[in-house]
Amino acid sequence: MPQDLQVMNIDLSVIKADLPAFTSEWSKCFVQIRVDGGSNPVHTRPTTRAGIHEWAERFPLPARSESVLRFELKRKVWLQRQRLLAFTEVPVSDLFTSQQQLVGRDQDLPIQLRPCLEREKENGEHWRLFIRLHGTQSLREIGEQLPVQSVESCMAEIVIKLEAFMAVGDAAAQINPYVNVAWKTVTAFYMIIKGQVDRYARLQDLSGLMRDSYAFVENIKSFPEKIPILETTIRTLLSQTIECIMFIRECSGHGFGERLAFSAWTDRQTNGFIQSFTSLKQSLETGTAIQAALVSFRLDENVSILLNAQTLLKLGPSDMDDAARSECLPDTRMDILIEIFAWVSMPVVKGNIYWLHGFPGSGKSTIATSVANIFRDLRRLGAFAFFSRGVASRNDPTLLIRTLAYQLGEFDHRIGDAIARVIKEVPSIRQAPLRCQFQKLLVEPFASLQDCPREGPILIVIDAFDECGQSSARAELLRVIASESPRLPPTVRIFITSRGEKDIRSVFSACSNIISHELDITSSTNEKDVKTYIHHRMVDIRLQNEWLDLPSDWPGKARTEALALRASGLFIWAYTACRYIEKGQDPEDRLSQLVQTDLYADAESALDAMYITALESAGKWDDVAFATDFRGIMGLIIVAQNPLAASTIDLLNTNTEGRRQRPCLHTIRQLGTVLQWAEDKPISVMHPSFADFITEKRRCGSDAWFIDRPVHHLRVARLCVAQLKKLLKKNMCGLKLSASDWKGELAEHVVYPAKFWVDHLCNSELRGDGCLAEEILGFLRSHFLHWIELMILMRKARQTIGLMVRLKEWVDTQCPDDETLRMFVRDAVRFCQAYTHAYEQHPLLVYQSALPFTPTASTLFHTFKDDSHIPIVVGGFREHWSPLLIEFAQPGKDVASISCSSDGQYIASTNSRSIFIWDSTSGELVTRPMQANKSDFTTIAFSLDNQHIASGSNDGTVRLWHAMSGEQVIDPLKQHSGPVYGLVFSNDASMLVSASKDQKIVIWNVGDGSMVHASLTGHQKSILALAFSPIGTRFASGSRDRSIRIWDAAVGAEALPPILHKGGGVTSLAYTPDGNKLISGADDRTIRVWDAHQGTLLYNPQTALQPSPFIFMGHKSDIYSIAVSPCGTLLASASRDTSVRLWDLSTGAELSHLSALSPFLPDGKRIVTGSHDATVRVWDVESVGSMGARRLHKGLVSNIAFSADGTQIVSGGLDKMVRLWCAESGQALMDPLRLEREVNAVAFDDREGGDGDGGRHNVRILAADKDGAVFAWDMATREPLVATPADHPSFYTREGPLALEGRWIVNKTTNEALSLLPNMSPAKARASYGNKIAIGLANGSIVIMHFPQLSGQGLTPKEKV
Questions:
Q1: What is the pLDDT of residues 931-942, one digit of tens each?
Q2: How many CB atoms lie within 10 A of CB 855?
Q3: Looking at residues 1004-1022, what average pLDDT do you find?
Q4: Which one of 122, 1094, 1096, 1200 is most buried, counting C-beta atoms within 10 A?
């Protein structure tokens, strides 16, 4: 057995420290000792007397002869923080040598310490620590002194057996990681128990059986050739040993949870381990390999599995297929693998996140994969996620938490059940903020596992975190992981690898729960591992080239070391070099070429030289055809959002100039050193460092190799558009419109360009390319709707909004002078915003529903309206885009209050006894509703840091909620005796101000719910409004007593005398962003502008010659709410008259008004409103269009009917009017006919016969009011006629073939779906004739639609009753 594997027990005492004079007043000093940088140091007690630095404490330390002891002198300072004063590192062998040189063996051994602070270094005085060695014992010697069947003796013997097994050599190389990990686990456990395990007979029996299972080691030492046959069984034994040790550790009270009481559960687990070891022991004794399942004490196997896999899939996780990922080669990276295992498995460690970072190509990903595989074999790998820059689904930071949750749910059915419940409670959890996702999908499910602390560690591995989007995209994910991970149970450990990027380092280095470890590529251990790797690969290469008759020791020690030296510590260099040698015709030639190159100055230079060598040998660079093909193919591979198959590359890379196109594999086959490829698999770069090299001109040097990302993004964008032009057409999958689901099979060469053409375009730059704008416009004019259809087929309808918004931003920047293109793209954005909710239900609805209702004045409508097969909305639904962007509602009463997050991403609304949080863009619920217990909510407010929502209720209660989880943060706050009407947070979100009908104002501490000051009083009636100044600590309150009061929250007193609002009670308040103006709304229908610092009414600056007070008038009823735009130039006001009006704050002029609560979103371009129909709406303040179809009635359309020939329509409404319309143009054919009561029914009496001449009688218009009275008019003369009950319109009703089922328009004769009504006022009446349908709406509008694809069908008269 090698000397460095001998484990010993070092017995030493820390005696005292000799420190400089200036430390004479120091106390609370202590010494901490670590063995080999381990995570479980020992330390002395802190000193209690100033200047007396003595301890005389004794410690047994497990170590190897090559171990290094680190002594640290520390001092506890303010708030129990530790300050490192001095330290030193001493090899164990040096300590023994120094001890032997002492005259007396019991004499104290002085160790020189190195001070840490500059002042202490310059002092020049001694810093010495005195220790005493009492001797050492090997574990073999200790084991011989213990009772034969004790747990301790069994552990000692197992360690000895494992050491012997490790000494077998190359035969055991494949299972060495498991041997080392098992050795580390057993050794660490032995050193902490030291007689502390109860003499529980079952544990003693289990330990003895585990020890006896290693009896095979003596035979293996003599016959190592048996190892490959028994490899699987031995690996299972080692894994089972690790798991069993963890179990015994929990039983001993040294585990993650409290000491386990011996019970039926522990008996069941013990029996499982005994059965497993018995089976393994028999297999090893007989030399027969078996497939034994690992017994884990994590899960009680008697628990039924209730995992709902389909529910978990709703998380939309990223596919993490890691089957082809490389592991560390045998006998490499053992130091870091063992250290990580120790960190995961030890209950008490510094942090629950281990961040491994280092230079590109230093082997981080292979370490991550090896760690993941080890813990997967141990059944303790909860999740393994790895990012990849070139795969769109693996470089999106928003997918990480959902992917981890999905894998954890599969790993443990109990976690899966908890996550499934979250998905059912919060269906839109995919759209929730990352902080909320972390809480709901990770923290809470783990917290629901009561047995989690006793079940040992669970590991989560996240590899290549630096490839998780750009730094700006991953910023929020970084913050969430850093701040929220401490809330996970201590058994959950997260191992993260990445490059040492600045943004990652700045966040992680500031967190005490994150252990940072940088891979040292210059260390001797790393150099040894690189050399081992090269040796293994050279052996493989020699065996692959048997006909070359290479020597058995090829390439020899010297040349192996020469290659390792040139690798500069980089595994990717070694990997690429070996691959370069392997791909050559003669490995000897290529090997000689590499070892003859000069040594490099640094790791980057070494890597660059390796890539240059690989490329130079790949082809004939003076061949123009080869160089052209290389740049075209490599550029596409480098900038592709996903790795593409060769067939897709060829289809995209089609030569547009008519020249013969060579298959990409013709070129790729020569680039095997730097590309990972196969004929039937996606092609990608071998390592991200190659993409870094070839896209940086400084590094790659040659123009023939340089890939300019923006240039190639533009080229690929054009290739995508060209491919789409070939493929796109209407109804490309031959679907039939229906309300049910659809299926469409799409190939990669179709999906990729549709999904990513916008991304490629937006990553490019025009650089004087004047034709590109014309190309884009031409494509959109021909295929915009076809592209939407394809995106729907791909189930990506919602992505069209974001893609068009991004395209608009790019066009505005790159093509500012091309108004035609800009106008089309603006329309495209509004089209997607307005109709995604409709067309996402079926691909054909983009033509059958969205296009017919597009504004008639829009460029988009004029481009596509001539399609003879699309439905026609007679007269057009609207002329211009509506100011309404999106609306969303939940059943309940009126929207009582709304509030927006400061970033504009979320909208909170309250409706009866629920609070809803909406995504302001998609209109989806972010979290489950927050529920009141007994009393309705009256008002809500978002904190400025977006962390909390405050609510007030009718019963006077104030509640504080976590905005994204929906959980109450503290107990309800109760100080008010009446309904709470006003809530506002301070600017730093530390205080919450509430106001009530009880005339009191309370300032609350958000942290603990305490009152900051006594209640503020002064108002004489209900307080209805609050507003906090954006500057300082002042806030304003408004009351029904017609006064405004200005308060200072810091001191809890009024800052100004009361402001008298003579017109009426103050119902709403708002400050301008600069804090200089205070604006009030009142129940006298006026809005007034005040000087916020003086409390005086301001005068309109536009009327300087005749000064007049700054008062806005225009509303017809009480002002409910006011809001100022972020730029401070616009004011929005909402009134009881159901309107929202916009005002110019500089002039007082009214700009426009909408239909009713109205805060601005932070972009200043959108207003949010809530109304009596329980709906929240988001409006565009810049739109000039109407809400929808023209209001032809002034109230709800109650009934509608077609004439016998289908050319005319009669309608009646609650406005007491009967009206006649042309079915072809939608124009009115006569003035309204008026009744005294609301119209209930209408019809035509246009039957043939009855005029005395055998011809057709005059057509009558019939109507009935709500009381049943019947009326008739001669349609030709408009003169009233006598009508009887027999003339009731119901007797003249005709049924056409078209019907309205919900919002679907269907043909009843064929049961075919024809169209889907987009969001509009509810339909209240409908009638049809042939291919026409007329629909009366609740807002008084009438929609008439024609379906040209249907042949005319006559009406079927309904017989009179």
A1: 877 788 999 999
A2: 21
A3: 93
A4: 1200
